[in-house]
Please model this.
Amino acid sequence: QKCPLCKTKTNTVFGVGAQDADIMFIGEAPGENEDLTGVPFVGRAGQLFDKYLEYLGISRTNVYIANILKCKPPKNRDPQSDEQDACIQYLREQVKIIDPKLIVCLGRISALRIIKPDYKITSEHGTFVKKGRYVMTAVYHPSALLRDPKKKDDMLKDMEKIKEYAVKHGLKI
Ligand code: URA
Model:
């Protein structure tokens, strides 16, 4: 209840997956379907994301999926920076507990907040960086793929790189 979005949400969308996950995916904020179910990435974007996971043989139950914001912003708008500031501590605690070996930002908003404030998703997606104790990368947000299917080729390559990294480093998938 640290920001006004708690007044308009249906459910808190905290996160889902394995507490000992090696890979943690981080999106931006719950949408309508996530708000109604309390589970991240279950709407159209989430279903598309699931297809990549399934194709690569990555199980949703072995990874962890969360968002920067735990409550749905109105009308599907981007999370505001004051809302991110209010909520980010929950994500920090999640990262500390799960202690993933790879963090994958889903989309620009997440990469800006988690990797660096001048992240350029169009030129930097799919590259791996080390920040503190964590290896991180970012891919296009699945919603961006729905808006612009031409990005799907890049998404597949990036997700394949993530799988390769996981196999090479023995990460649980
Ligand atoms: N988009 C996100 O960033 N997160 C969700 O959980 C759903 C859609």
Notes: The radius of gyration is 15 Å. The first strand starts at residue 16 and ends at 17.
